[in-house]
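The freezer alarm interrupted the setup, so I double-checked each line after restarting. Inputs confirmed:
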Amino acid sequence: MSATAPTVEQRETFPCFGSECTVIVSGDAGAVFGARRRLLEWHDQFSRFNTDSELSRLNSDPRATVPVSPMMGRIVAAALAGAERTAGLIDPTLVDQIEDAGYAGHFEGSGIGLTRLLELAPPRSQPGPRPDASWRRIELDRRAGSITRPAGVRLDPGGIAKGVFADELASTLAAYDAFVVDCAGDIRLGGRHRTARAVHVACPFDVSTLHTFELAAGAVATSGIGRRSWTTRGGRPAHHLLDPATGAPAFTGVVQATALAPTAARAEILSKAAVLSGPDLAAGWLQHGGVIVLDDGSFEVVSAPV
Amino acid sequence: MIRRRVATGAVALFLATWALIAVELITGHDPALASRKTTTVATSSAQPTTSSASNNSGGSSAVSSVTTRQS
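Predicted 3D structure, all chains:
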């Protein structure tokens, strides 16, 4: 027997995190407004490009041990968990490298386009961990509310923070019949009615839909190199997903990966790891299901175990 | 007499059974469809595909969709 249909959904889409966020809650516009307000506050609090943000103040703090907010603690914990899970393939300490690559401020527009990016790209290669693995020397003391890191190590949790935000809001919206929090592509959905919802996976080459999942709960995240791409002053193609071993933008043969997972933070880690692992290993990260898109535009839908 | 009653009863039972099955199918309660489990598709074509990752839902056409893309 089907569950009762939910009440009318309240939905709002707004600019945030250099992209767009969407919040959907059944029957409560106030909850949508509250979620929107928190996302915008978190954007200001944790933006790498805002010199007054907590993240910027942490990165510029000369002390070895720095007090942090509970949310910063959760973000750093998720980033370190991602590094641990991927053995350093996802490295939250590549701030110097991403700035050297030309990504030191808000990214305007959609970039040079994936097709042009791939035309300019070097031969595909397999990324690896950073030799010094400085992320291993970051210590988070959640009880004391502090982070200790080696001198000069700066943090950039990147998209993992968006996943943490989506998960945080999901915990506050769980009592509603249905909800969706879309943090610029990191999506968390659920609700008491477990209402099935179509989640479309966008093609990175155009505006088409590659695949549609029917999901009642859980999370979806998409990582890729199609947007936020540019050419450096030397004419080299660049994007924001770096090979930790070289510090250069990674070209693996996978241009986009979408991962399903129980939480958005984990989906973000899995999707990013799939892109950085290359075509032969990408599917191994999508244990909850997902979609992999390759250089040539072909794609594979990875089944979740039944 | 007895043979006629048995034959009439058998025919009536046969018709009642098929009428019940027909009603179930017409109202959309096809047991073959009701037992559908999670389905996933693996493909490398350029055609959009659909898969379900949950079979305990109360779907509604009023529910809006969302799109995941690299941000």
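Quick read of the result. The radius of gyration of chain A is 19 Å.
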